[in-house]
Specification:
421 residues; alpha+beta; 5-stranded mixed β-sheet; two-stranded antiparallel sheet; 60% helix; elongated; disordered C terminus
């Protein structure tokens, strides 16, 4: 199904990028239909009889001119409608039975209705319907109520209504897209604002903790040094205050810095910074927790730079943590790390049913994807995260092997397609 859909999307994109080629093909198709219909004799109550008549050279010329005018229908829709309508009226007056030149007018009227406003469509449509219908009724030998004359009225009216419906649908889709883009921008700005406010609050808390307790430690240490020789009991009391103040400072610092940690991070890491060399051990922890994970890495013997290696490890760790939290039972995950030229691509996929849960905060968090984006942006890479077609979630990071560490322009500057987790 995906391959079939892709096969239709590519020609559609090409035609949108080459509108003149589409109009030329449409003009050729309309000319072929008009020529084919000009050889048919309508037989009421039965199928048309082909080969019963042959169009006049003048009719063929009018059909060619009307079809050729359709090539310019996007650039000059009103002029094309006027030309095709005039050629159709001439055909009604000169030929009996007339050739179906009016088919080009139907296409031109549809174009005018789909590319202009509704008042213009009403005026152009009523004028075209009235002129062609009256001309066909007055110039033809058939009764005015014949099905050929009523067909002219019906087809021109249908063209105007269909074009107006297409224009309304385009306007509706554009309005929805514009509202979605505005809502997306508002969400991103709100997320940046909240992250900035939280960081400012934590910075203030750290300043207060450090300034207060270090000042207290400094005063008590000075007192202890001053009375150490003459009054050792008072010196011991001052040192006890130093120890209590330092313990209180450490506890408050641990609580404040803990706000920046993810739920699965160790409280006091003592080992070196992890990387892809210990990826198997990381994956085993998730497997032991009941999450099947498949790993595919290319060029395992070619180490990445330290910053890139750490970023890739942290992205995989956070993504798998989100899978375990939100994807539900029976979920499988896939991890791949691929070297592509001067970049390394890290991809984490899952087939879980809880992809929508990762678009909002969970368990009081909500900064998982933001942290991943900031880590990737600091290295000059890009990150995309969002639901997969058919279910599940996808996290994809492109990291330059030759990293160019830089400060991010804002709290969240990497590409955003998913929410926070």
């Amino acid at each position: 199904m995906t391959t079939l859909g892709t096969g239709f999307v590519r020609p559609r994109r090409w035609l949108r990028g080459h509108p003149l080629a589409f109009d030329r093909g449409l003009a050729a198709a309309v000319l072929a239909c008009m020529l084919c219909a000009s050889f048919a004799e309508p037989n009421p109550g039965h199928e048309p009889i082909f080969g019963a008549r042959t169009p006049e050279p003048s009719s063929v010329l009018l059909m060619v001119l009307a079809a050729g005018a359709l090539v310019l229908r996007r650039r000059r829709p009103m002029a094309v409608l006027a030309v095709t309508g005039l050629l159709s009226a001439v055909e009604f007056v000169l030929m009996d039975p007339p050739a179906p030149v009016v088919m080009s007018t139907v296409i031109a009227l549809f174009t005018v209705a789909s590319r202009t406003d509704r008042p213009t469509t009403w005026r152009a449509g009523l004028l075209t319907m009235g002129v062609l219908t009256v001309t066909a009724m007055a110039a033809g030998t058939t009764p005015w109520y014949s099905q050929e004359n009523l067909g002219v009225l019906a087809w021109t009216g249908l063209a105007g209504a269909a074009g107006d419906a297409v224009r309304s649908r385009r306007a509706f889709i554009d309005a929805i897209r514009e509202r979605a883009e505005r809502a997306e921008r508002t969400r991103e700005e709100e997320a940046r604002r909240r992250v900035a406010e939280e960081r400012l609050r934590i910075a203030r808390d750290l300043h207060d903790v450090v300034a207060h307790h270090i000042a207290l430690v400094n005063v008590q240490a000075g007192v202890a040094a001053h009375v150490m020789d003459k009054r050792p009991d008072q010196a011991k009391e001052a040192l006890a205050h130093v120890r209590e103040a330092s313990r209180s400072a450490l506890n408050e610092l641990r609580a404040t810095v803990g706000l920046l940690r993810q739920s699965g991070d160790p409280e006091a890491p003592t080992e070196p910074a992890p990387g892809l060399a210990v990826l198997d051990a990381l994956v085993d922890t998730f497997r032991n927790a009941g999450l099947p994970v498949e790993v595919a890495c290319t060029d395992p013997d070619s180490p990445l730079p330290a910053a890139v290696d750490l970023a890739a490890y942290r992205i995989i760790q956070e993504a798998l943590t989100n899978v375990r939290k939100h994807a539900g039972t029976g979920t499988k995950a896939e991890v791949s790390v691929v070297r592509v030229g001067e970049t390394a691509e890290v991809t984490v996929l899952d087939d879980g049913r809880g992809a929508d849960a990762r678009t909002g905060p969970a368990d009081g968090g909500g900064h998982g994807l933001i942290g991943m984006r900031e880590r990737v942006t600091a290295l000059g890479g890009t990150l995309t995260a969002g639901p997969r077609y058919g279910g599940g979630f996808r996290v994809h990071a492109i990291l330059p092997v030759t990293s160019r560490t830089r400060a991010p322009e804002g709290p969240v500057t990497a590409e955003r397609t998913g929410g926070t987790a």
